[in-house]
Amino acid sequence: MNNQGLYLYPLWLRIWHWLNAVLFVALLITGASMHFAQPGAPQLDFRTARLVHNTAGILLTLFYLIFLGGNVFGKNGRFYKLEAGDWTPGLVRQLRHYLLGIFRGEPHPYPHSAERKFNPLQKLSYAAVMYIAFPALALTGWVLFFPERLPERINFMTGTGIPGTAVFALFHSAIGYVLSLFMALHIYLGTTGETPFTLFRAMLTGYYNGRHAAGHGAPAAAPPASVPSSRV
Amino acid sequence: MRSFATVAIGVALATACLPAASGQPPPSGTGDQAAACMDCHAGSEKSKRGDIEIDPARYGASTHGAIGCTGCHMEGFSEYPHKATRQEAPDCTLCHGGDSSQPYDRARIESDVKQSIHARLLRRLEAGRSDPVFKCTNCHYPHYFLPVRKMASIEVAVRIGNETCMACHARPDELEGTDQERKGRAPRRQAVEEHRSVPAAGAVRFARVPQEYAWKQLASKHVWIPMWELHTKAARCVECHTPGKEETIHKILPSAQAQKDCVACHSRDSLLLHKLYRHIAKEEWDKGGIVNAIIFNNAYLIGATKFAWLDWLSVRLFGLALAAVFVHSAGRVVAKNRRR
Q1: ipTM for the whole predicted complex goes beyond 0.90
Q2: Labelling B305: which of A111, B39, B195, B319 has CA 20 to 30 A away?
Q3: What is A6-231's CATH number?
Q4: Which residue of A has its CA nearest to B332?
Q5: In this predicted structure, what is the pLDDT of residue B138?
């Protein structure tokens, strides 16, 4: 940690993060534009929406592969490793902070450090998003690039089945909705730093200089599980 | 247009003289008489004599199968050699008169055809001819004809509908030779001439067109449509090449006026509902929580087919999340002010 604060986010990660953000917003807008298309409605031209959606999807997949490679072969993956205590008391404590502690002005129960960038809620949600939801979204999206190769109908239990494209489109839409929800909450929780802009600034400059950084008036490591964070 | 004058005269004659046009059942030639015709005319559409041979099974299953051969081939066909030629057989107005109570509203169809690009182009070709160049049988092969509602599936309806258009619009002779040669060849006139001598459309004529040429030519004209081949399996040419949501497939537009707005189909009130699927009752449109379930049964069409319950749940969850964010942030502001 230097005068600028705790260096948490290297340049490649920041570029990756913001490109991801832009691409995901583009996918959200264009996806909704096509899904809720209506003649004369103020929305993107259908063909433009399709082109942007496909391009953004391809780029996002490429960036994901870079992220995955970085996590497997680099050091970034350690921040996503789930550990004992992440669920309980970690998640419980973090949720309690957002539901109660934050209104009392209590310090964050899991301050940032070079070894722990994510609190338990972040770790669990990011791991679920990056290792489960996003791959599923990308996979279903790529499958929909080649609808002519999908089975014409997929049978579920009874009946004549439903079109193969519809099955993948259903999952693609459902996961898209979930990730949109995640993005909305992710942006909001980004305002829960010392000031509403502290965390956004950190993701722009790489330096976190809030008081919730370990070694900046806050504990350097996670408090023992038995000690409520508010008393640390 | 001369053809319509002829048609009008035909309608008048039919109304005055023929039982079918006066509301009585059309003349029947089923049973032994049809079997007698089939002694010579039964065959494969791919045979060398394909233009005079028909498949008895397909004919029998067609909407005209019950009428029998002499229902249309009335005078001069009962003995061999036939005294009459095919061109002398009465046209479709014999039964399909200008009355909306008939199986088809001939008056409306005729009006639509008159406004179509086909009529405008063919009017030039009719100068000096006594017989009409443009006839129903140019596109509708009467021996195998089935309306969409009686076809085995929408997929079949789409295939037959598109093959009918491709019989003229995807001809290999339009591709061969230099540009100058192609211009001099007047392929459309050739197509019309061929129609006159072989009034067979649909699967019969399509079989004679090398498919690879057909696709290449049509694809080059529709290159702006993503996954064009997939579109041709889910919709007919006439969905886009006839006006908007009008329930017509006969008012063919010039290509410059064809539908180019993807949202016309890719939306909740898809124009496919008003054309390809219009014979299906509206009660069937939305079923099982699926918007436009009748389209969904055949193809997933983004914008048109959707899972209503997924949208309902997701939009509300998103709204709930935004409300929670608003309440939470307001609470933070209030709490912070109190602590000061």
Answers
A1: no
A2: B319
A3: 1.20.950.20
A4: A103
A5: 77
